Amino acid sequence: MTTARAVVTVAPRVLEVREFTVQDPEPGAVVIRMLLSGICGTDKHTFRGESKQYAGTDHERDIEYPLICGHENVGIVVATGGEVRDSDGRTLVVGDRIVPGANVPCGRCSYCRNDLPYYLCRDLNDYGNSLGCSRPPYLLGGWSEYMYLLPGSRLFRVPDALPDEVAVLTEVMAVTHGVEKALAVLGLYNVEPVGISVAVLGVGPLGLCHLLKARLLGAGTIIATDLLAGRLEKAAPFGVDLALDASVTDLRQRKEAVMAATDGRGADVVLDCSGVPDTFVEALEIVRPGGVVVEAGTFVDMGPVGINPNSAICTRNVSILGIGGEIATGYGPSMRLLTANLDRYDLRGIVSHRYGLEDAPEALAMAQSGASMQVVFDPALR
Description:
The protein is 24% helix and 25% strand. By secondary structure, the protein is an alpha/beta fold. The protein is globular. 49% of the residues are buried.
């Protein structure tokens, strides 16, 4: 038994560093020493009190405070409750470096039994979200020195060549399965989609990973928009052909620019990763007839938007794909994809800022600014 410091979101916009007892793992559980934990867009919503998640599903809920946030994690195994196997069936041992899945599915409901995305599970728990810190085992989020991983968690061994600051992006990259789905709708999956145009709305870490996935799969013209000019600058080296600063342009201007860049057609695929609902309307404005809109950014309920389904969707034959999170089968391929491209792109530089746990207010402020890309907690920093 030992103790661990952790950043606790006590209430909206209230953070405290508290100390918890590290519980010995029950059978099937694992305790890891945290290396890095990212600040996700969902964490920013939770921090601001925008806490309704999974709206319209069986597990719709408002997040309860206090909790330890952090579901983009990489750590080292320090204890296991008996024999625990990773996603490939190999026994985990102390010293293994792993990325845990962000969700813990029940394994019993119809969604789990039919191998549908595990975030559809009817009795789902999420690290750093639904799992609070008011009772043992307490440490169920990554903004901590140690993290307790419940029995049934999906655990993914990190390739030796993948550095921590890139491994921490695994969960975010696993959310990008909507890119492949969009290509399948267009009849281009497993076919090099040379020349297709892709627009990414919002190029924070989630949007940047979508942009990178589209580029690696062979997209031609890539258009990026963001309200934060600093994010556009950081995204540029990953293959942005047209950057549109939404803070100094309006929708009409951006639509005209997209049309000019796509021979008057509109983007073949629009990936909406902004985290605000208004950009969904913009996505429908700039996608071409017969194109695909992937909505991946509005995990938290931010309210409705007004659209005309006839003119925006039906008569233009637009397909819409809703992405509610990452898929468990995406973790391993995401780590392999990141490892294979370490020398092609500056993936290590996506983590722009590291903070110790005591600097949590500064970390959250930086994560919401245009000066950052991916902000992470490094518990080793004091």
